[in-house]
Specification:
Length: about 100
């Protein structure tokens, strides 16, 4: 990870995974961590993503970030949903809306 406060962490990558794909995984994880760190500093976020109560808001933010077009932001919301075991699907709209 870039920066002076970097902490090296281990990512378990299958030995059979191609070197280029393994490097992609590491670089993308670093980009995700950097983006989350910037959000924590800018907005004062911490680990609120661990709360079970924000599922619908998380999915709405996920959809909003898809429209914004930044794959790293999208992946971070995917990671939050992965943690909770939530699907990326929004609940169906009630009829008549």
């Amino acid at each position: 990870m870039q920066g002076t406060n970097s902490t090296e962490r281990k990512i378990n990558i299958p030995a059979e995974l191609s070197e280029n794909t393994a490097n992609l995984v590491v670089k993308f994880a670093e980009a995700m961590a950097e983006k989350l760190h910037k959000s924590e500093k800018k907005y004062g976020y911490s680990d609120e993503w661990m709360a079970n109560s924000w599922g619908l808001d998380c999915k709405n933010q996920f959809m909003r970030h898809i429209q914004k077009g930044d794959p790293v932001d999208v992946a971070n919301y995917c990671a939050f949903m992965f943690y909770h075991g939530w699907s990326t699907m929004l609940p169906p709209m009630p009829e008549g809306e």
